[in-house]
Amino acid sequence: MDRRSFLKELVQSLTDTGKEIVYPLFENDIDKLERAADVLTGVSWMRLESIEPGYQEQICAGRIISLYLAADRLIACSKICPDCHETLQWIAYDRRLTCTACGRSYTFSDSEDSLRPNTFSVKKEEGSWWVALPDKGVPTDA
Predict the structure, then answer these.
(1) Helix (H, G, I), strand (E, B), or coil: what is residue 91?
(2) For 17-33, how does the pLDDT look when each residue is reduced to its tens digit (9 = 90+)?
(3) Is 141 domain-assigned?
(4) Average pLDDT, the chain
(5) Which domain holds residue 21?
(6) pLDDT in tens, 102-134
């Protein structure tokens, strides 16, 4: 092995070793930053029960949420109308949430709907789905 190859191999080895040493330190800091951001934004992450493709509802932290899973993309929203605060009804044959009080409706695939329920952030981690729900105080859908 010539000097140039030796030095190139040495630099690569030192770089890899440095990455292995430093990465766990940054990983812990990233977790801390994510938790701090959650505290500042006032959300808590709740684990959802098993999710099947299509529409379903679950109760998390005392509130009912609507879930729609299609092609490994999950949408979570409040089941309360943001305008009149009535419970939204799922119309299965039409695949839409409807407010019977104000007559507005929402489909999970169309962005031109007349109803805009409060949506929640979701993530898939460790093989489970998680939803970010607002913490204490007045809920956003009350």
Answers:
(1) strand
(2) 887 887 777 777 777 77
(3) no
(4) 83
(5) 3-41
(6) 888 888 877 667 888 888 989 888 888 989 888
Q: DSSP labels for 95-138?
A: TEEE-TTT--EE-SS-TT-S--PPEE-EEEETTEEEEEEE-SSS
Task: Round to whole Å and give the CA distance between 55 and 94.
Answer: 12
Looking at the fold, whether 7 and 27 belong to one and the same domain comes out as: yes
CA distances from 75 to 57, 65, 121 (A): 11, 10, 8
pLDDT > 70 fraction of the chain, expressed in percent and rounded: 94
The CA-CA-CA angle for residues 75, 68, 128, to 5°, reads: 75
- Residue 133 has phi, psi (to 5 degrees) of -110, 145
Give mean pLDDT, residues 54-70.
89
Mean pLDDT of the 86-112 span = 86
Dist. CA 104–CA 141, nearest whole Å: 16
| Residues 70 and 91 occupy one common structural domain | yes
Cα separation, 30 vs 75, in Å, equals 25
